[in-house]
């Protein structure tokens, strides 16, 4: 998709950092740009530049585009001095092809072989299906950031500190700013290593002398458009809910942050990536801006009339896309190897719906174009007989996640082969990229660690929610292009939307069950399990032409999930992970409610909304005014926050507050708060599903509640 003529295209090509490294662009793009005016069609030119040229030579560029990964482990040593790129621009009347030769061919071939060996499942998928793009590139082009990554992302300092358990939470250390510059810090560290006197005491002293406590890199701030007496919540009928909405509205300043002047002045001392505008953080241990959280927070900010704050948060996402070619998981250097569910287009569409700001849509179109290109290039897969690309979460990692280092080391304790450890760590990072970290959804039921973190296989699964999101993005992109008068781009997006909608029906829909499911690439079948993500196509508008929404209602009913008193659980598997039974979360709850509304199931949507609002409000009252990231929806008592996972339940909480405010404005005129005594006890003792094994069991923490344990083996048809 090319916008705004020759000049814009020239700037686009010169400035783009995705999907190849900025070093490549410095060498190739200027020469390519000089050929622009000899091309009869800029659309054809850019299509060749971004698709034909890059995809055709992906394997050759792969080693060059990933020095930040390859430098971090001896298994991937690739001398930069040998990475000389010889560029040839071959021009004819219709396209420009880029070819490159790696000066040291043997080194490149060895590196490529090691990358392929690094993930045997990915190699299988690549051979069978022709996977598009294996990695999330880090294309910073700055030496300073590479040094920062040696401290915060990999290396012996990170390993020793995290394994010594100096801090209870691994994230604490990687959020600590440096007291002195990174080069001196590393030099001092290597001196300590050379002395041979590394023990817990010397480690603690080193950290105390070289690092500050986290938190000082962000300053609290009051949003410029915050009105403490905002009157829109007066439409809420219930006095209890009305006052609650006002209190939640007044929490926004407590969660608003801006990057400190200290970071702006000396960014090399911080793991934080600076952002130009204030933003709302989730809360608790999550001190930075998170990508997919932001959309659901934005829905609440729009409910609070805070349009300028919303625009600023979208501009922050745009600034990350301008720099990296995608929006990372969060604005920390250790999050740069992964993104999250791509909801930028959702954010922009919601902002436009609230403001009618066409000028900002024009600006934002560049960002959603580049994000779409990124996912097409690095996260896509082509299945045989399917007319559209499909998408998966996929990360290549050479070590544990820095912010959860010990947890990842423990997850791989049963693996001896280094490359297999790296494959597992990549799949764990990919699960974090999904936003659902962690869930039985990503676990295998084969092998010695079946059903546990050590069996994570995220990259082997095509997730229905990710594909529904991208399909829906195409529909929204078409609408936004129409807003700014770019009808040809709008039609192109609509054509892609129609193709992908057909592919979703072809690959993910199960007619017998009447629902969508994730698709197992390795086994070539549905993962026939209830997950709350199964229903994303409802909201994204990616249902097939003869779709009957009553089938989804029947599926929910048969699975028994409508009987839980607090809402729909994330899954029916009690794995101990936080994105599993009995927990439910604000984002997927909101998507399900809006999806049911958009397909005419208003009564059921309202019932789920009422349950969710009541569960949140009851916990608010009991806890003394606290909001949590997740809730136990199976408990008969409304006093149970969610649990499980690799950290303690967090409160704050950005997206929870945002979803509640949006739902209260949607349903508030008709809702009344009922006491816990009015909550009926669940009487059903069994439910039947399609080809899933279920069992009813007692749960000591959830009296009179059905606990359904599903077998993944039986779900793989």
TrEMBL record:
Domain of life: Eukaryota
GO terms of biological process kind: trehalose catabolic process
Protein keywords: Glycosidase, Hydrolase
EC number: 3.2.1.28
GO molecular function: alpha,alpha-trehalase activity
PROSITE patterns in UniProt: TREHALASE_2
Reaction catalysed by this enzyme: alpha,alpha-trehalose + H2O = alpha-D-glucose + beta-D-glucose
InterPro entries registered for this protein in UniProt: 6-hairpin_glycosidase_sf (IPR008928), 6hp_glycosidase-like_sf (IPR012341), Glyco_hydro_37 (IPR001661), Glyco_hydro_37_CS (IPR018232)
Matches recorded under Pfam families: Trehalase (PF01204)
Family designation: Belongs to the glycosyl hydrolase 37 family.
Name of this protein: Trehalase
Organism per entry: Acanthocheilonema viteae (Filarial nematode worm)
